[in-house]
Amino acid sequence: MSDPGIGFTVHNVIRRAATLCPETEIVWENRRISYGEAYNRVVSLADSLLSLGIRKGTVIGVADWNTLPMFELHYAAAMIGAIIYPVNIRLPLDQMAHTMKVAEVEWLFYSNDFKALSTLISKDRTVGLSPECNAKYCYNDLLSNKTIEEPEVEVTGRDYFSILFTSGTTGLPKAVRYTHEKFVHGALAIAYQLGMYNTPASLHQGDVIMPLIPFYHIHSWGSLIHAPYLCNKYVLIGRFMPDRALTLIETEKVTWISAVPTMMYMLIDAAEKMNKLYVLRGLKALVGGMPIASGLAKRMQELSIGFSTIYGGTDMLVTSISIAPRKYNSIDEFLDYMRLTTHPVPFVEIRIIDPATGKDVSPGQIGEVWLRAPWLPYEYYKDAEKTRESYVGSWFRTGDVGVLLSDGGLRVLDRIKDVIKSGGEWIPTSILEAIISNIPGIDMVAVIGKPSERWGERPIAVIKLREGYVLTKEQIYEVLNREVDSGRIPKWWMPDDIIFVNEIPLTSTGKIDKKELKKNVLGHGY
């Protein structure tokens, strides 16, 4: 009997695109290749990988930006059943070394930007990706093989496709492995939600996709599946630079991007400086990774950028994407709904649990977000203790605090580790951050908990101002007091202090690193 998962393989996607839309382009640097050419290159590359001794189950690490070699290696590895690890190149070197050891990386493919990593692997098992390669094996040489038939390796949906690592903000990064079937289903769930429901970042055949999210972050949120699956032109930016991104959007007529909020800020700032805001008008953006501030939402609205919010993570893939409400009374209400509320993608179930009792709370009440989905990995690789903590039966404990709305929407308010517990009550820091971030001149803000002998913890706000702006504590408190007077926040949520800093640390995925910030501001990371 054949394996029922046999059709759900990653390389089936590029094979189908080569037949269905062989002339559609992939763009990288000054190169343009069609899906038909890309498929032939992948077949040749897969055969070359086998000639190197890479086999089904071999883990290969790839250290590079969003490039054509990165794209091709994903498909070539999938074709022979090798397991790909897109190295999180934003991690510190010691953590990158740790992840490669845990993943049991046997071969490393690297561009010149990451040549230092090649010392972590035997030089006989490294491949240089850059054109000026001086390694024993060079990527372009592997492509010189002109094999035209796919290798005869049986790969099914139940075989492992990739290994990924969390960003490591609460300790060393944790590893999860995804099978072909799980990753394909997770990626297609994004395409279905964006294609079949009323959401501003709609994604359809004919869109030109340029992912700003790097491949090391959940394989660029599945964009390497979406583009060939939908037969869409796929633009690869390499390393994210806002000026370059803006140029590519204009020259390649990009209609759809994926980004974290910090990237959107940088992109809009670059457009302002270059007098090219018109380039962004009509763009569609899938935004996630951290909360979208109301100021950014309004700025995108002013520029006619249709945005949708995505919620998910390395250890759960996609969970939910915002769907536009049927009715809203004002544009501000609409923007707040879209930036704060997401709806489960098909086949995702969500519960809100009271951590103290372990029981479900009533709709509208705050608790920990639990979920289950067909693509959950159900374990942290080689970490039984963390697995027991997070995967409970068929459910995954996200570690996020949230609330379910009456329309089925999910609002994630905070990380449990970041939520402030003052006098036995929770203060969701994201709400305070959203209010403060909307003040003109605020570049970034993080609300963190400071130990209090009387209350347990009390909030303080850490603020980075935009260049050229001057604000005082009094001006910040004036805005917060207006929110208190209007009844939108309780008075006891008011931060005990406001601290201005020159820089706010970010994680490898562009989120604010509150653990590191606490060390800098409070002298500890707890």
User: CATH homologous superfamily name of the largest domain?
Assistant: ANL, N-terminal domain
Please mark out the parts with pLDDT under 50 across 5 or more consecutive residues, or reply none.
none
Shape: globular
Radius of gyration from the alpha-carbon trace, in angstroms: 23 Å
- What is the CATH topology assignment of the largest domain? Rossmann fold
Helix content: 25-40%
Instruction: Note the gap between the termini.
Output: 54 Å
Domain AMP-dependent synthetase/ligase: 17-381
Organism: Vulcanisaeta souniana JCM 11219
InterPro entries: AMP-bd_C, AMP-bd_C_sf, AMP-binding_CS, AMP-dep_synth/lig_dom, ANL_N_sf, ATP-dep_AMP-bd_enzyme
Domain AMP-binding enzyme C-terminal: 432-511
Verbal overview:
- There is one protein chain.
- The protein has 526 residues and is an alpha/beta fold.
- The chain has three domains: 11-185 and 192-238, ANL, N-terminal domain (Rossmann fold), CATH 3.40.50.12780; 347-374 and 382-415, Luciferase, Domain 3 (Luciferase, domain 3, Roll); 420-522, 2-Layer Sandwich (GMP Synthetase, Chain A, domain 3), CATH 3.30.300.30.
- It contains 16 helices and 26 strands.
- The strands form seven sheets. A six-stranded mixed sheet has the order 10-12-13-14-15-16, with helices on both faces.
- A hairpin with a 3-residue loop joins strand 14 and strand 15.
- Helix 1 packs antiparallel against helix 2 (35-51) and helix 11 packs across helix 12.
- The radius of gyration is 23 Å and the shape is globular.
- The N and C termini lie far apart (54 Å).
- The model has no long low-confidence stretch (mean pLDDT 92).
